[in-house]
Amino acid sequence: MVRCDSCKGDCCTGIVLDIPKPRSLEDFENIRWYLYHEKTHVYIDWDGDWVVEMDLPCTHRDKRTGRCRIYDSRPPACREASSAECERNRDDARVRFRTVADYDRWLDGRRPAGRR
C-alpha cells in the first residue's frame, strides 16, 4: 500500500462521485452525456454501484511537488480520505467506460437480439 506521505498528490487529480444506477432510457442517455465531456469517465464498481470520475486537478495541489498547499486547512472530504481509498492502492472498476464507444459496445452486449 502506498503511504500518503510518499505520494505525489495523485488523489488530488480528480473528482469521483457516485451516481444513481441507470434504470430508464433517459438515465442511460445521461451516462452518454457524461462521457461526451473531456477527461470524464464512468465506471461500475465491484458492488454494482455507478460512478462518474472527472480528471480535474485540485487548484491547491502544488504542480511541482504534488503536495497540498492548504493541508492544514483542507476541507473535510480531503481529511476523510484514506490511503486505503487511494486510486494508487486499488481500482474499483469492474467495467470502465472511457469513451462513448466503450459504453455503446457494453450496451450492445446487453440488448435483446433484434432490438436497437
Q: Mind sketching the topology for me?
A:
Blueprint: E1 15-19, H1 25-35, E2 40-45, E3 50-54, H2 76-80, E4 93-97, H3 100-108
Antiparallel strand pairs: 1-3, 2-3, 2-4
How would you describe the overall organization of this protein?
The chain contains 3 helices and 4 strands. With 116 residues, the protein is an alpha+beta fold. It has one domain (4-108). The model has no long low-confidence stretch (mean pLDDT 83).
Alpha-beta content class: alpha+beta
How many distinct helices? Answer: 3
How many domains make up the 3D coordinates?
1
- Tell me the helix content: 10-25%
Q: Compute the gyration radius: what is it?
A: 17 Å
Strand content: 15-25%
Low-pLDDT windows of residues: none
Order of helices and strands: EHEEHEH
Mean pLDDT equals 83
Shape: elongated
> Major sheet: order of its strands?
1-3-2-4
In whole angstroms, the N-to-C terminal distance is: 44 Å
* Quaternary: single chain
Main β-sheet, in a few words?
4 strands, antiparallel
Number of strands: 4
